[in-house]
Amino acid sequence: MYTGSLRRLIDELGKLPGVGPKSAQRIAFYLLKVPTEDATRLAQAIVDLKENTQLCPICFNVAETDSLCPICLDGRRSTATLCVVEDPRDIVAVERTGQFHGRYHVLHGALNPLEGVGPDQLKVRELLARLEPEGVEEVILCTNPNLEGEATALYLAKLLTPLGLKVTRIASGLPVGGDLEYADELTLGRALEGRRTVGGDDAPSA
Ligand SMILES: [Zn+2]
Description:
The chain is α/β, with parallel strands linked by helices. It contains 8 helices and 7 strands; from the N terminus they run αααββαβαβαβαβαβ. The chain has a 5-stranded mixed sheet with strand order 4-3-5-6-7. The chain binds zinc ion. Residues 56, 58-59, 61, 68-69, 71-72 line the site of zinc ion.
């Protein structure tokens, strides 16, 4: 129906999350109409993103190439408290609450055996390696309140508690099955405030 270039752009746009075939068509025709320099700026922003960003070598948040992320660069942030999240977008959600002044660790996913995601596919080894050198005293497990997030929190609690750390989980009150990303800052702020210790008292009673 469409010529080569237009067809290709519609196909590429249609692969984006949340963009269906109709939206892809609408965006493509919009870009066809805008001044060339506007379209070029968008294309260049995508190229720059891929060329100039990497994962922060400390916390695995998004960072500019050859640099730490803004949070690890900020010397005022405490290294004693570490907030473990699944995704860099969750950092934005926690930061919006204004209630956390420590640092983060991004796992880049959650345990999901059915999809072949085990501890080795997540930044778990990297998490363990940070604890002692950075003098971490409390780890807040801030994974999503869904099946995978809870399983990941449980796994990490069992791994971290024997190391003599305080391990806490954000309180319930977040919509179950939901995504941190979509939690409003008030609810997430309360969940952070109401976090409780996990992992220490779940020994099976023989
Ligand atoms: Zn970082």
